[in-house]
Amino acid sequence: MKYQSFLIKYAEIGIKGKNRHIFEEALVRQIKHALKPCEGNFAVHRTYGRVFVECQSEYDYSEVTEALSRVFGISGICPIVETPVVPIEELRKAAADFMKEEYPDQKATFKVHARRLNKEYPVDSMSVNEELGEAVLMACPNLTVDVHKPEIMLHVEIREKIYIYSTIIPGPGGLPVGVGGKAMLLLSGGIDSPVAGYMIAKRGVKLDAVYFNAPPYTSERALQKVVDLASQVAAYTGPIWLHNINFTEIQLYIYEKCPHDELTIIMRRFMMRIAEKLARQSECLGLITGESIGQVASQTLTALGVTNEVCTLPVFRPLIGFDKEEIVKVSKKIGTFETSILPYEDCCTIFVAKHPVTKPRLDIIKRHEKNLDEKIDEMVERAIATDEIMIVSKDETRIVKERDGELQV
Amino acid sequence: MREAYLDNSATTRCFPEVVELMNKIYLEEYGNPSSMHHKGVEAEKHITEAKKTLAQILKVKEKNLIFTSCGTESDNIAIIGGALANMRRGRHLVTSMIEHPAVTESMKYLESQGFEVTYLPVDENGIVSPDLVEGAVRDDTILVSIMHTNNEIGAVEPIREIGKRINAKNPSAVFHVDAVQGFGKAQIYPKKWGVDMLSVSGHKIHAPKGVGLLYIADGIKVKNLIYGGGQQGGMRSGTENVAGIAAMGLAAKMLYQDFDASIDRLYGLREKFLDEIDDIPDLRVNGPAGRKCAPHIISLTVPGVRAEVLLHALEEKGVYVSSGSACATNRPHTSATLEAIRLPRAYLDNTIRISLSEMTAEEDMQQAAAALHELIPFLRKYTRQ
User: Fold this and answer.
1) Which among A94, A284, A321, B327 is least buried, having the fewest CB atoms inside 10 angstroms?
2) Single pTM value for the model
3) What is the ipTM of this complex?
């Protein structure tokens, strides 16, 4: 079947009152961006609470629907056949042809759902329903009518043109990226953080990300893994600015000066401090982590409290009440799981103690952090100076700042 | 920073002369050796010449050599093809516990197909005992596969003696030798030694990746695994990798010129390096000592330092080595070889491999020794507790 366009449904944006046009414009922008790599010419426009993707040339159906199904804000994608506004006799034929081609020889029940938004059309919706229902029944002997629970819903919208469709491909839902500001994701190589980023981005938030690497304890391949994860998330969110921070010096210093069972928690406090500095520099309004209560020693409520204490920006933890299984499920759905489980060591695990504290006390942690006073500030500055920045998109990664280099955009 | 590439058992840099020759073949003499016209003849000559060179080095007949895509393919054809062709006589195979995965995985495949495989242990230096081989060979044994030089610790196996014992016990058992690490570092004479099949790889001897060699002695039955245009006597269909084959021939020719002198030089580098790092406390060199070990492999256990960390730290100093065997990277694995020589469990993760080649200079070894002196005490300060 050749569909001339796609009707884009968006549940949530529809209810945003006076801000609605902001959301719709963002959605149109994101759709255009998602279609850019697809073969063909497309026009995206909005009319009367509807966004249409008009296909102006040959295109690859599965490529386009896959691209659209990754755009946050879309709740459904309906492939449409269009006709000009024609008399009911011709519309009968169009509807019958549509169903014949769409469901050849398929035994199923259907119902016609017509909407006459163009009141100049001489036949009212109820009558259109009846006329088209009859036409389809005559054309497709395998189809029967069920007005209560039809398996196929034939939608016919009479506007400045007539739109016919019966399929709704589910979209990811949420809000278009960009309407919710920007936040900094602490991205490790694990399963959780990419999912956390995805979930926040789904609420319309643009992502930046920071990765802490610790050569020689972590390898170049571990960094590549994180870049790959970022690019998989970027398939939904659009380009992500990824900051790669060299954390080795700080980590070794903490190792030397602080008790081992507190190493992870103190390390995480410094990661949060650095992430927050980067976040402020790049106008992010919050931090995002993949933490979930009780998953590891550093994610008990007590530990989370101690980690959180160093930040003034809000820290978003979308997975906080998720079980591992639930996180894995999303991770598989968005396509990051296979990469996440590649076995490269990340900086959180290299010196992890056999029995790390699970109930750290803030006053004791702070006292032990005092041991770091001599050098830690300059080390943090140095770490931030090592920042290597990459813009990671679905299909390419571009380094815009080398270690110790200038930003070049 | 100066680059000291000491991971030559993973792969080697091509000889410039080899690249030149390949360049000429790719750009000028690019014909398909099966073509009737001049371009085809021209290409075929390169194969003939490479075959001649390799046959001379191995002291075998040219018609007993086939070219493959890599050492792994050679091993697969030899073991799986050999087993399939001889399965009427029996279904038992013998190998060692320290073979390359190209051999052990082929064996495991055969086991899944109903064959029986005996895996022989080795001594603490990684040497396979000819007595054990003899004891393991039975009337229904169809194939024995023992490597020439172990890729992780450099142990050189007593191939000649093993060949004799197999022949004495069951003359119809086929003897295959994986010489991927040995070729180019030792004189190897399969025909003279009673070896029926021998695998060689191009990229370990300064030729490119993507070419391998398999020697098959007269009268040895092997089932081909690849079907197609019937090239190489039907043993290995597919248009020949002319440039790769020519490259392997030339590289081998270059390596086996002044052979004894270059092997002496490698042993010299090895000994000197070991002397230089002798004062680093608690080091352990695995594998046999002196000339019983291959000249180009140094397996070094550094207690208290994780191999991967040491590897990356050396990398920051321009020194490239490997942890365990490079063919199995990306998977943290415990090395079968290190386990087989009964290296204490705690050390399995503390072992790096430094491997040399004809292109290794004395400065490379000095750079590596200096880096180890500097890094080991530092890295030992920070350990997981």
Assistant:
1) A321
2) 0.87
3) 0.82
